[in-house]
Structure formats: structure tokens, C-alpha cells
Write a structure and sequence with these properties.
Number of strands: 17
Strand content: 5-15%
Shape: globular
Largest sheet: 7 strands, mixed
Helix content: 40-55%
Structural class: alpha+beta
Number of domains: 3
Length: 720
């Protein structure tokens, strides 16, 4: 790197640092105002003759629950209100406030007493939630009290969202998915408006994260969102088409000048610096999108809720309340949520757009790291122009942007871990591949999809790498297995100290509970079962003589065996490890049971790595089709979760919505495209192993030249 280039980069880095520091200081000063209070309402329940008509009653179950007034049961011997239920229920007194101000803090408080409130609701596999304060149509609640407790003070803080004009406070026994039995008394309920959040207090979002009862509004929002996204997609496709044509043009020019293997520059910059600038642009675009574009508040609120409880309960105690908190994640990502929970009160960051950025930052970084890994893979295998093209079609893939920067999911972290594992397999670094896989599985259960690839890779090195002594191959095998379990052990251990019945058995329940919690043929994934109109259909239902679950497991076993056998008997590892990994993940997501819309994600990065190694037009075409199809799949579900989907219980007074997209023409097409991509990936994998024409000119994207990878240099074929 020249001195001039270094100077420019140093100045840019310093400028960014100054901007970040100034932003943090601004936010800290802005949100450190002294809290001032405005009382909205107060109910002391001391007057037995008063109607208290502003309080409504509501419950999930219609029978077995009594709402009442105890004239002398209150905290000071006067009146209070009561809920008594013998049937597992989510029962509550509600107060609707219709003059709320947007982006404003509110404090709710009440005194509560409980009698024989359960910890596990009868006939329910979820932990029961005790007496609590909450805001309807959100996924968080105050401290909850079970058993028998004397009068206890509860306070709960919330913040309204942009444009929010109303909310409903619930004095509650039970919760969504945590219904309960017993008797609870409430006294001295108060609602206050705050100018600022008090020091040390933690608030939650009061925005409706469970949908809206206004279907016309929801449909309008959905239409507008889909239209905007379509325009974005068209723009992205045009950009990539121009980039593709530009790369081809520069390629011909370079060939004429015989500069392909030389130190070609891009607009006066070295290729490495040009790629770094491209990654920086991708990073900046994601930061901007992270707080300006619509997001799915359900997951963002859940992550914030988990982080707050991690700090309150402590890491060793956290999973003991997993069901109550709707927790279905393994431990790895929770370490970061713990960090966010710990710093969330600094300048009230948890209530600012900066928190959204921090929450999505690991995924954004992962996107950029994957881009750099793809660059390092490409730089010795293709020309400089095609290298830039490959990095571009990852960084600005609309599906990748949507999942990480908008939704705030962690699928890119999983994709990064699996890509690293595949890369280590390619480089014969099997223990490191095992470590990366341990990170993947402790991050998200879907990392298990990659286990057959690593298993067959370890078996392959035992059978095929005969140039090494058997003892060394066995030792490498043992090291790899040990590396996986030691890494997983160290990640899991801090969460298991106080878990019953022992330090580690609970983790099995985490993984099985995650799967059993979605025991449906498909869960909003536009895959093969979706085309059978089996979305949200119990996977125990019968189809052609077998259950959906049985058919799905048969498909997983068959495709795992196919991928493993193809890899085991292939003549070389490159690019098979990437193609077969992508094939297995995509076919499992397409034909397996209980799949969600984002389970296709890791296959996209692995497939692009396969394009780099194989120089194959078919794989590039599959990458383009699956990117577009999954963009719309993820967009449909994210939008539906944000604005509401199909009303699944018309008797539920809160009119909560869960996204349950029915079949229509566009979704059917997406499902067909996903199935087609899976079939084409299987065909491509078989062609790569068995066809002699795979490397021929008609399949090539770019012309290979001396010094570039062509299947004979750099990565030599292994012995048959």
C-alpha cells in the first residue's frame, strides 16, 4: 500500500471515530434529563360504590375465571380488585389510554398479592406466568409472582413508538403461552407519563408487536411495503446486471493487454483497497438501513427482553425461565444480548435508535466478514474484475440486506460459521472446522444441518488420504471430535451451573424444545410442504400413508446420505465441499419438516463460494434465482409479522394476529422456485462429480488463464 493510500485510510478512520464518539455523547446528554411525571390515572379501589367503568375485564378462556371486588381485602384494609381462576387462563383487568404521545415514556405501577398461583399450568407444557403488569400485544411483562405472596409493589416502564396514539395496560394473571391458575389481588393502580426515563430504570417498547386488528390498514401497509421492496429488487437486479456487463468488458480489455495475472488496479486503487472500500460502503448501507427501514419488532423486542432478563437473573439462572420468556435460542448469541442488557441503561441507549444498531451489529459485521472471505477465495482463482463482481453480489444481495440490517436476525452469523467450517475442511484443518461447527450449533440449532458434511469429510480423510500414516489420520479424527465437544462445553458451561438435573442435560431440552415448539409441516417457509397447503399444519397429520414429519425426516436422511456419499467418493475436495454443503442445507430447508423461512440463508453464501471455485454458470444462475425467491419469502413473512397476518382465534378479544400466509399465486411461484433450486442443486452436485463436461467452456463464467485456478494448479486433485 502506498503512503498516499495509507494517509487517506487513516484520515477516514479518524473521521469515523470522531463521528461515533460525538454521536454517543449526544445521545448520552439527550437522554440524561431529569424525569418529570404527569399522572394519567390512579385507582385506589377504596370506594365500593364506584363502578370503575374505565377498567375492562378480558380472558383467553371463557370459563373457570371470576373477576371481583373485595371491599376489605386491599393493602390498607379497604377495597381491591381480584382475579380468581380454576382453569388455566390468561385473565386481566385492562385500561385503555387513547391520548398517548408518540416516543414518550410511561410508568405503570400496582400493588399485588397472590394466593396459590401456579408455576406450571395444568395441561400446558409452558411455564405459567404469575401476576404481572404488561401492555397488550407486546411480548414482555413486569416481574411476575407465583405461589402465595403478601402485598408487593410492581412498577413497569414502557415507551410508545412513532405515531403511536394509544395502548392498553393489563393487570394480569398469566400471559401469552403462559396461562395460570390461582387468586390474585390488585390495589393502587397508577399510570404516569414521564419526560424521561429515571436513572437505572429499564423500559420496553409499547408498540403493537403482535399485529393489528385493522385489516384494511394492514393490507395497505403490506401492499406499500411489497411495492417498495419490488422497486428495490428491480434496482438491485439492474445494478448487478450492469456490474456483470462491466466485469465482462474489463475482462476482455485485460485479456487483450495480457494483464489478467498481473497487479491490475481498479480506478487507480489496488484490488484489495477497492474491495475494502466496497465492503465499507456495504457496511455503511447496512448501518443506515438498521434504524431507518422497517423492522420486525417481535424479534427485536424479544432480544431486548432476553438481554434485560439476562442481567437481572444472571447467566447461570437464565434458562430456568426459558419457557416463560419464549426462549428458543442456544447460548452463544445470549452472551452478546447480556452485554447489550448491561449497557442498555447508559444514556438510556436501550430506548434509542443506537440500540437497534448495536443489536444488529454482529450480523452486519458477519455480512462484511463473509464478503472479505469470498474476496480472499476469489483473488487467486479469478481476475480482478470478476473478484469485484463476486463481492458486490454478496454485499448488495437484497435478501442479505433484508435479513441482517432490517429484520435484525442472526442468520449471517450462522452462515459465517458454516462457511468457515467448509473453508477449514477444504484446507484440511479438520479440528478448526469442528470448532467452527460448534459455534454454529450453539448459535442456532440449524447448524446441525452441516453435521453430515463434516462427518463424511472426517471419514473421507481416514479412507482417501492414504499418503498419511493411519495413526496420524486417526489422531486427526480424534482431535476434531474433541475440538467440537470441548468448544461446545465451554460455551454451554456458564449457563448450566444451576440447572437441574445436572449441568448439561438441560441443553438437550433446549434443542428438542425448539423443534417441538414448531411441530408443523412448515412454518411460513415457502417450500415443498407449503405447496401442499400444509403451512402451520401439524406434522403429525397424515399425507399419502405417512405423517408430514416422517416424510420430512426421510428426505433429510436421503439427502444427507447423497451429499455424504458424493463427497466421500469425489476425486477432489474443491469445489465439492461448498456445492454439497449448499445442496444439503437447501434440500433440508425445502423438503424437511418444521422449517422456517430463513433456513435457506446459509446455503446462499456457500453457493457463492462454490461459484468461485467452480467457475460455473449453472451455479451462478441458481444463486440468482434463490436470492430473488428468498428475498420475497423473507419479505413476506417479516412484513406479515410486523403488520399482522391471519386472525387465528376470533374469540380472542385482543384481536392478536399471527402471520399465517395462505397459498396464492405469488407464494406458489416462490415455493416452486425454491423446489426448483433444490432440484437443480442436486443435479449440479451429481454433474460435478460424474460429468466430464462440467469444466468445459460452455459452463464457464470467465476464461481461465495461466496462474488462475483451473482445477490443476494451486488445489491439486487428490488421489483417487
Amino acid at each position: 500500500m502506498k503512503k498516499k493510500e495509507k494517509r487517506i485510510l487513516y484520515i477516514a478512520a479518524a473521521a469515523i471515530l470522531v463521528i461515533v464518539i460525538a454521536l454517543v455523547w449526544f445521545l448520552y446528554r439527550k437522554y440524561q434529563k431529569k424525569a418529570e411525571y404527569l399522572q394519567i390515572c390512579k385507582f385506589d379501589f377504596n370506594d365500593p360504590e364506584k363502578n370503575y367503568e374505565d377498567l375492562k375485564t378480558d380472558s383467553y378462556a371463557a370459563e373457570g375465571t371470576e373477576f371481583g371486588y373485595a371491599p376489605d381485602g386491599g393493602i390498607d384494609g379497604t377495597g381491591c380488585i381480584t382475579i380468581r381462576t380454576t382453569t388455566a387462563n390468561d385473565a386481566r383487568f385492562t385500561y385503555e389510554y387513547k391520548q398517548a404521545l408518540e416516543n414518550t415514556y410511561y410508568r405503570m405501577s400496582v400493588w399485588v398479592k397472590t394466593e396459590n398461583v401456579g408455576t406450571v399450568a395444568s395441561g400446558d407444557d409452558h411455564d405459567a406466568v404469575g401476576a404481572n403488569l404488561s401492555v397488550l400485544n407486546t411480548y414482555s411483562h413486569s416481574s411476575a409472582y407465583t405461589g402465595t405472596h403478601d402485598w408487593t409493589y410492581i412498577e413497569y416502564y414502557g415507551k410508545t413508538g412513532k405515531g403511536q396514539k394509544d395502548f392498553t395496560v393489563a393487570l394480569r394473571l398469566g400471559f401469552y403461552g403462559g396461562m395460570n391458575t390461582g387468586t390474585v389481588y390488585f390495589d393502587d393502580f397508577e399510570l404516569e407519563q414521564l419526560d424521561a426515563l429515571p436513572s437505572g430504570a429499564i423500559s420496553t417498547s409499547m408498540e403493537n408487536s403482535m399485529g393489528t386488528s385493522e385489516r384494511v390498514q394492514a393490507n395497505t401497509q403490506h401492499h406499500d411495503t411489497m411495492l417498495t421492496a419490488t422497486i428495490l429488487l428491480i434496482y438491485t437486479i439492474l445494478y448487478l446486471a450492469v456490474a456483470y456487463r462491466y466485469a465482462m468488458k474489463r475482462e476482455r480489455e485485460a485479456q487483450q493487454l495480457d494483464l489478467l495475472s498481473g497487479s491490475v488496479k481498479v480506478n487507480g486503487l489496488s484490488v484489495e483497497n477497492a474491495v475494502l472500500i466496497l465492503i465499507a460502503i456495504g457496511f455503511a448501507v447496512r448501518l443506515l438501513m438498521s434504524f431507518t427501514m422497517p423492522q420486525c419488532d417481535i424479534d427485536v423486542n424479544l432480544f431486548q427482553y432476553w438481554g434485560r432478563n439476562l442481567v437481572e437473573k444472571g447467566i447461570p439462572n437464565f434458562y430456568s425461565s426459558a419457557k416463560e420468556m419464549n426462549l428458543d435460542y442456544p447460548p452463544l448469541f445470549l452472551y452478546y444480548l447480556y452485554l447489550l442488557g448491561a449497557i442498555g441503561n447508559i444514556g438510556n441507549i436501550a430506548q434509542t435508535f443506537l440500540y437497534d444498531i448495536l443489536l444488529k451489529l454482529p450480523s452486519i459485521f458477519a455480512d462484511c466478514v463473509i464478503a472479505f472471505i469470498l474476496y480472499k477465495m476469489a483473488e487467486k482463482r479469478m481476475s480482478k474484475n470478476w473478484t469485484m463482481f463476486i463481492v458486490s453480489i454478496w454485499l448488495f444481495n437484497p435478501m442479505i440486506l433484508l435479513d441482517s440490517a432490517c429484520w435484525g436476525q442472526v442468520d449471517s452469523l450462522l452462515a459465517l460459521a458454516l462457511l468457515v467450517s467448509a473453508y477449514c475442511i477444504e484446507k484440511d484443518r479438520y479440528p478448526w472446522a469442528s470448532i467452527a461447527l460448534a459455534f454454529a450449533i450453539t448459535l442456532k440449532p440449524q447448524g446441525i444441518f452441516f453435521v453430515p458434511i463434516l462427518g463424511f469429510a472426517l471419514l473421507r480423510q481416514l479412507i482417501r488420504e492414504t499418503e498419511l500414516p493411519l495413526a496420524k489420520r486417526l489422531l486427526r479424527f480424534a482431535y476434531s471430535i474433541a475440538a467440537f465437544f470441548i468448544t461446545a462445553f465451554l460455551i454451554i458451561l456458564p449457563f448450566g451451573f444451576k440447572m437441574e438435573p445436572n449441568v448439561f442435560s438441560w441443553i438437550i431440552d433446549v434443542y428438542t424444545g425448539t423443534a417441538d415448539g414448531y411441530s408443523y409441516a412448515t412454518v411460513n417457509s415457502f417450500n415443498f410442504f407449503y405447496l401442499l397447503d400444509a403451512n402451520w399444519v401439524q406434522d403429525s397429520s397424515s399425507f399419502m400413508g405417512l405423517t408430514y414429519f416422517a416424510w420430512g425426516m426421510i428426505a433429510i436422511v436421503l439427502f444427507s446420505l447423497l451429499a455424504g456419499l458424493l463427497y466421500l467418493f469425489s476425486k477432489k475436495k474443491q469445489p465439492y465441499v461448498y456445492v454439497l454443503s449448499a445442496m444439503l442445507i437447501y434440500t433440508v430447508a425445502t423438503f424437511g419438516p418444521r422449517m422456517h423461512e430463513r433456513y435457506f440463508y446459509p446455503a446462499i453464501g456457500l453457493l457463492l463460494a462454490a461459484v468461485i471455485y467452480s467457475n460455473n454458470k449453472l451455479l451462478l444462475g441458481i444463486y440468482a434465482v434463490m436470492s430473488i425467491s428468498n428475498f420475497y419469502t423473507v419479505l413476506e413473512v417479516m412484513t406479515g409479522l410486523s403488520i399482522g397476518g391471519k386472525l387465528i382465534n376470533t374469540d380472542y378479544a385482543t384481536a392478536s394476529y399471527y402471520y399465517w400466509p395462505p397459498l396464492n399465486t405469488s407464494r406458489t411461484l416462490m415455493g416452486i422456485f425454491n423446489v426448483l433450486c433444490a432440484v437443480l442443486l442436486v443435479a449440479a452436485a451429481c454433474m460435478m462429480v460424474f460429468s466430464k463436461n462440467w469444466d468445459k467452456k460452455p459452463f464457464r463464467i470467465w476464461e481461465e488463464t495461466k496462474g488462475l485456478y483451473n482445477g490443476t494448479n494451486g488445489d491439486q486433485d487428490e488421489k483417487s
